[in-house]
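Fill-in record for Reverse transcriptase domain-containing protein.
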Amino acid sequence: MVSFRGDSSTPWFADFSNYHARNFVVKGMSSQQKNKFFEDVKHYFWDDPILFKICADQVIWRCVHGQEAVDILKDCYNGPTGGHHGPNYTTKKVFGSEFYWPTIYRDAHDLVKSCDACQCQGKISQRDKMPQNSIQVCEIFYVCGIDFMRPFPSSRGNKYILVAVDYLSKWVEAKALPTNDARVVCKFLKYLFARFRTPRAIISDRGTHFCNDQFAKVMLKYGVTHRLAIAYHPQTSRQHANFEIHTAGDHRKVQLNELTELHDQAYENSLIYKEKTKRLHDYKIKDRIFNVGDRVLLFNSRLKIFSGKLKTRWSGPFTMTRVFPYGTIELSQIDEPNFKVNDYRLKHYFGEDIPKMVVPDLQTLSKDQ
């Protein structure tokens, strides 16, 4: 419900009405308050039992308050002649209907902001993204990303390609596999650890082949931290393979005593570059603050709406239960387990409850990964 100043039993124009009807002036006003009162009251006149305001262009508006003002504003916004317009146009329609109260602009803004139908429309833009968080690595095979490529036509019994990319050198290791289960993933990682070294962290998505007890035991055994990308935010684990055989052959000719200096230079240049890209990225985004207990709507980027263009992509509202670093938010819904999303896909919800909608194709988490 929109909060109006005129909701109290005493109208906002009571002093003006008393002056014009009975020539009564409130006692105890300072000289400055009296000057302002008499400057304002001359723009009103009394026609029992209604007070009217004369505006600058000599148009006469009727003064209203309380529930009557609420009903007028709602009729101009979503009534038969409404159209869910913005606050300025809605206010213009109220003035066109010859009604007035002093907080009309603020009340129209609050009404438009809390409209359920309007909040469930629209998309998310570049300005809604979360602040950029760079992954800084200082050694080869210090951090690597791992993921399965989509199923391919069967060739020699293999349908999947498991790819691992080193975040510093962009070195690629790939293996064709017949299945995409946890067993083949663990076997592939043990081969990498034996061939190169044990990394400090591995970044993957939330697929079941990476989120299971067998994979967790291997990570614990080798002392590797497993980092998970947030659902529907693949930028966290995406790495481009930057490997070309001729370039690699030329770089082998670099003298070993130069490698330390080049390593330090590359690390410093990487810091400078990532700080610059973070400034450019964060400069264009909106400053949004989410707190525990806030009610939000969730944007479903995978929803196909070609057949019904007016179908909303927003579901909810949901309640925030936990706010993690780096843009991860945990949401709760009635009779369903909590789940985590990226705050890029959220926006604050204002207004009353709307019917709960099921979030399609969304992986839920029963515990903190």
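KEY FINDING: The radius of gyration is 31 Å.
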